[in-house]
Amino acid sequence: MIPYGRQNISESDIAAVVETLRSDWLTQGPKIPAFEKKLADYCEVPHAIAMSSCTAALHAACVALGVKPGDRVWTSPISFVASANCARLCGATVDFVDIDPVTRNISIELLSRKLFAAKKNNCLPRVIVAVHFAGNLCDMFSIFALAKEYKIKIIEDAAHAIGGEYLEKKVGYCEFSDITTFSFHPVKTLTTGEGGAATTRNDTLALAMRRFISHGITRDPDYLEQSDQGAWYYEQQTLGLNYRMCDIQAALGIAQMDRLEEFVGKRRDLVQRYMEKLSRLPLRLPRPNPLSYPGWHIFPIELINADRRKVFDYMRQQNIAVNVHYIPIHLQPYYRELGFSRGDFINSENYYAKALTLPLFPDLTEEQQDYVIEKLTLALRS
Length: 382
Ligand SMILES: *Cc1c(COP(=O)(O)O)cnc(C)c1O
Description:
Blueprint: H1 11-21, H2 31-43, E1 47-51, H3 54-64, E2 72-75, H4 82-88, E3 93-96, H5 108-120, E4 127-131, H6 140-150, E5 153-157, E6 165-166, E7 169-170, E8 179-183, E9 196-200, H7 203-212, E10 217-218, E11 235-236, H8 247-257, H9 260-278, E12 283-284, E13 292-293, E14 299-303, H10 308-317, H11 333-337, H12 346-354, E15 355-358, H13 366-381
Parallel strand pairs: 2-3, 2-4, 4-5, 5-8
Antiparallel strand pairs: 1-9, 6-7, 6-13, 8-9, 10-11, 12-14, 14-15
Helix pairs in contact: 1-8, 2-8, 3-4, 3-7, 5-6, 9-13, 10-13
């Protein structure tokens, strides 16, 4: 079976993990700050905070930005559920802004209109979670301008987008957002097994996230309410969780960071090949943001005439593990229960009805890719 995504683990990755297993520290040792430094340097951002997942990072980001019951958080429906759940975990109300059918990212026009109406009705969101779907970058410049106008905070959910560039800066640079979150799940571009991170330029947000992911505890003498109590002393100052990454994961992350450019480059080459070879088929292909250099995570296409279910089943029978990204979040039973229904975000629903994700990962060979293209061509003819 050709999977839709797959990690790339080298002997040096394995050696790095084994070395940590033989060391004094399995968690909270030297590998975590080293990984954080490497990620921060890569993104040219002052703070990178490693966590147990991107879900944890999104939750911590919402907490740090003060999201609480009574607040509203907006995101787009074509994402993984975690992009919305982070707000629900803070007791806030979630609402969605439909996607732009071309970019499949949050529609700037619809966002602008919805903000205008929300201001009139005194129900502006506290935070917008901008998802870089498939690794294709949102129009951050416009989102940032709107957020400034309406005094809203921005989280970039960059689970798909590590290694991408926007206006010549790496995703995670946070020029147009308060916090950026990453995922290091094995299907994503860089992996630590499970894992995630947040980056920010803001010292206060960084501190708040660090505290939240470790039980609300701080040991930093600069922030203790009672100083000079002894070296054992720590304070739990807020409520938090254990959302830490461990050193075994960080060791893998450090080793993987050395190959990140290679991973991103291979994905770009494969996407380029798909774009060329699929251009004459009745499909809608991803349309990269012209101000960016995307760090592709998945390759989602839309079928124009064909029956998605038939094509999906046919491809699976040919041992090609195509997938579908995503079921619109507002159609999940949990969100329907909160009042959303079919017809609420029609661009997302239309996209979902025709969406199909083709295999994309660094070790996908050109022969395998040609096989995928050949079978897809056959499926669309029948
Ligand atoms: C994978 C993913 C997440 C969650 O990442 P985890 O590390 O698995 O928690 C969040 N948002 C998006 C868009 C994702 O694809």
